[in-house]
């Protein structure tokens, strides 16, 4: 198992995390699939052939808990001779609807999962990533961001806030960890066909629709895993690419007006 490059995926039991695990296993990687959903991880293993199962390690991970992170990373790297080439900080949750209509506790939990999870995972994985940085496959972190990190989204206010935080730490660590040869990037899709968008209460999802699949994101993450340039943000899908491009060219008043129209 140690000859192949190694990826650790948080939130791997369903949706984007599961699709990414399947993609990397199909491409010959060692995959650490960790989640709080044990049943989902067991179901993932049933979709693999015998050879792929030899390259899969699964385990429980609560991304809001530092000790859980450390145990999960120690467990996975014990199967890879200490190797960790890629950390995919994928785990995330969502609450939608007017800010005042969601409980404060539910929105604070969202921050804990979406932001604390990325912070703790990146911090605790760094020693392993430094060791892998000079290897053939290098070392990198890919964070799950979102098109909602382009401009703050009504009815997704706290989710959008969490993804701005992810965008910020991605940009900062990509510069800070460059001397260690650890590349840091984020993937920025619009709405993806997962359970997270089921019954979402936001005007933007009604206007823009749900056009991306988890497999679309997995394919992008796989491309990012082999990228050697300086690019940091990876929008997925034409809509997101147009939105990100327009945000760089448009004055603030026009971005605000556009987002008001998209989300009403």
Automatic annotation (TrEMBL):
GO molecular function: oxidoreductase activity
Pfam family for this entry, one: adh_short
InterPro entries: NAD(P)-bd_dom_sf, SDR_fam
Similarity comment text for this entry: Belongs to the short-chain dehydrogenases/reductases (SDR) family.
Keyword Transit peptide: no
SUPFAM superfamilies in UniProt: NAD(P)-binding Rossmann-fold domains
Name of the protein described by the UniProt record: Short-chain dehydrogenase
Key words of the record: Oxidoreductase
């Amino acid at each position: 198992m140690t000859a192949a490059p190694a990826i650790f995926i948080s939130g791997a039991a369903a949706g984007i995390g599961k699709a990414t695990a399947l993609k990397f296993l199909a491409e010959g990687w060692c995959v650490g699939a960790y989640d709080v959903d044990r049943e989902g991880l067991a179901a993932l293993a049933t979709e693999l052939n015998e050879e792929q199962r030899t390259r899969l390690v699964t385990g429980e991970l609560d991304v809001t808990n530092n000790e859980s992170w450390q145990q999960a990373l120690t467990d996975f790297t014990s199967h890879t001779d200490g190797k960790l080439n890629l950390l995919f900080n994928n785990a995330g949750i969502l609450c939608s609807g007017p800010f005042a209509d969601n409980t404060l506790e539910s929105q604070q939990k969202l921050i804990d999962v979406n932001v604390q999870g990325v912070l703790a995972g990146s911090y605790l994985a760094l020693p392993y990533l430094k060791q892998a940085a000079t290897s053939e496959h290098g070392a990198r972190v890919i964070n799950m961001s979102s098109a909602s990190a382009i401009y703050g989204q009504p009815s997704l206010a706290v989710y959008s806030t969490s993804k701005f935080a992810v965008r910020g730490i991605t940009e900062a660590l990509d510069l800070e960890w460059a001397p260690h040869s650890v590349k840091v990037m984020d993937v920025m899709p619009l709405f993806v066909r997962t359970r997270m968008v089921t019954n979402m209460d936001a005007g933007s999802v009604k206007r823009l629709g749900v056009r991306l699949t988890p497999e679309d994101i997995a394919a992008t993450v796989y491309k990012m895993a082999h990228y050697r340039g300086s690019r940091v943000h990876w929008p997925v899908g034409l809509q997101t690419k147009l939105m990100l491009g327009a945000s760089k060219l448009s004055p603030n008043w026009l971005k605000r007006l556009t987002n008001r129209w998209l989300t009403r």
